[in-house]
Amino acid sequence: MKKPTICITSLTCCEGCQIAILDLGERFLGLAGKIKIGDFAFLEERPESETFDIAFVEGAPITEKNKERLLDLRKRSKVLVALGACACLGGIAEIKDYQDKNERVRYVYKNIESIENPDIIPLRDLVKVDLEIPGCPINKEEFLDIVKKLIMVVSQGLLMEQMPKPAQRPVCYDCQLKRNVCLLQEGLLCLGPMMLGGCGAPCPSSGYPCDGCRGPLKNVNPDNLNRQLIKQGYSQQEIDMILQRFGVLEEIYPMPPSAT
Amino acid sequence: MRIKIDHIAKIEGHAGFVADIVNGRAEKALFSVLEGSRLLEGILRDRKCAEVSQIAARICGVCPVVHNLTSLKALEGALGVEVSGQTILLRKLMMLGQIINSHALHVFFFSLSDFFGIENDLGLIERYPQKAQQALAIREFANKIIEIIGGRSIHPLTPEVGGFIRLPKTESIKQIGENAKKILPQAIELARFFAKLNYPKFERETNFVSLVNAKEYPIYEGELSINGKQKYALKDFMQLVKEAQVSYDGVKRTSIEQNSYMVGAIARINNNHKQLNKEAKKILKASRIKLPSKNPFHNILAQAVEVVHCFEETMKIVKTCHLESFDFSQDKLREGSHRRHEGDSSASPQNDKISAGSGYGAIEAPRGTLFYFYEVGENGLVENCNIITPTAQNIARLEEDLKIWLPELQNFPEKEIQDKIRMLVRAYDPCLTCATH
């Protein structure tokens, strides 16, 4: 069986998802033996492979160079995987889009001519994305599991449609497996019921309510949870502020609120 | 002669380099950062104190702990919140974990291959399988510390204004101590290996900036110092640091009285080496480098020495912790936690505790001193914010180094010149996601 050529790369982000991959430690090295590393700037300095079987891309496309890089990677890769909240949702960089982003850039920089300040969009708005591995950061166990399946799919010449799909379960599912006390029932503003699980619920397990870094469940109706939270004394604005954190707000509501 | 490197690998983030050598002089030497601006100081404004430290942690996936904690320290300054001794101990443990894991990544995976001309770490791992295992074991130990206290190693969850939303089990802290004892010999062995490496000879006068603290080798708190001599209160020092934008990227270069300066492990060792723990001191001595060292390549050795120091320090702190079980009642603002702030602030009983004000925070991040400033309004929202990261401070000196070093290198083949430039850049351990933020 031919070893698939893998690219792990980033656009603009914190690079925490790549660190999560390195944090697999020995298990990453085990994986590295089964693949050909075509590009992974954390570990090597060689010229990139011409083409990739699988490209993992983390980060948001902020600069023109980021966008060119993404388009180029798409052309050169059989399978393109978006890695983490920035690539799947926009991530924290998108917060400015809910504010006055032109005022924000002037606040940070005196000369704004050279600073690129586009609206932040997920990768799928620019290129065809074959798979999204969400989270801020990604769940490294989930990543390992998906990569193993992907390698099998790619090296057997299967189609992406034959790739097993992650289940559409809420964070509450993971939380119950951990036998956590329900933070929502405790009165906290936890968004677990409408957010995509698979993370292993590290946040609620630490007493930190889910803030939706993995994005919403498909076709979720937020009304029930909103009603419940408002009954508990929270305002819609407070809920929306949390939905802004990783660029989730417009994923849940069909039309994004206009910037103020 | 033009020297151009489009992309330098094995650093955090993206950067390139271009220089022109004309008549034996470097006309320009630009280290250009290819990172988009996420406008962090802008986007944190008008947001609640309870959430900004979580967002700030996302500046960096390599050192999220230091952004999270420095942000909290600045907020605590602004809100007039004091934290307990217990909180400080636990935060220090998290810091030690952060420094160890970041340094282990840098010295072994980013820098070491430069000494052997290996372009691929898998080749390096094949050549030094035992060293690779040590580096991995060290990183895993460090991640575990952050996980036990912070709930997660990348973007920790439990630290909040005034303390923690959840405290670790006393048992788990004990486990950290036992693991530290077990893995310390591996850290020592790895550091000894770095003490024996042949570092390129390049020295240049500069000012070294770090925290100083009469009580300890400071990573979490202290005054600021230049070369271990003049001392400044944090607020005064932050006003001394001038930030200036450049035309070719989004990282503001910093200076103090028009001079560049250096922060990071070598600055800390230069300023504070007398306070290192025993084993770390031994390795430093065995390396025979003369202190203060003006050689930026020694930053790599300094990091390896600090890894050992941090192991020893972890054991010390665990010893201090182990007599008592952790107790929320020790934290003064326990009630003003994340939980309540996330709720309707007008209905919160804590609302009256929020007072407008401004605050400063500084910490020794793995790459050097990290500064935060916040101004918080009456409504509990952030009004103003400034963040000065270690790499943003170091880039000005790095660019000057390159300008002076390049003419000395010009008779080497071009590939070799490029390799040496890359090696110097990596010795600084730049983090460009931090620098741009």
UniProtKB/TrEMBL annotation, chain A:
One of its GO terms (molecular function) is iron-sulfur cluster binding. The keyword Oxidoreductase applies. The keyword Oxidoreductase applies. Pfam families: Oxidored_q6 (PF01058). InterPro entries: Hydrogenase_assoc-protein, NADH_UbQ_OxRdtase-like_20kDa, NiFe_Hase_small_N_sf. Keywords: Oxidoreductase. Residues 14-149 form the NADH:ubiquinone oxidoreductase-like 20kDa subunit domain. This is NADH:ubiquinone oxidoreductase-like 20kDa subunit domain-containing protein.
TrEMBL record, chain B:
Residues 334-344 have a biased composition (Basic and acidic residues). Fe cation binds at residues 63, 434. Residues 334-356 are annotated as: Disordered. It comes from the Bacteria. The keyword Ubl conjugation does not apply. Its cofactor is Ni(2+); Fe cation. InterPro entries: Ni-dep_hyd_lsu (IPR001501), NiFe-Hase_large (IPR029014). Keywords: Iron, Magnesium, Metal-binding, Nickel. Mg(2+) binds at residues 41, 387, 437. Transmembrane segments: none annotated. Ni(2+) binds at residues 60, 63, 431. This is Ni/Fe hydrogenase subunit alpha. It comes from Candidatus Portnoybacteria bacterium CG_4_8_14_3_um_filter_44_10. The lineage of its organism: Bacteria, Candidatus Portnoyibacteriota.
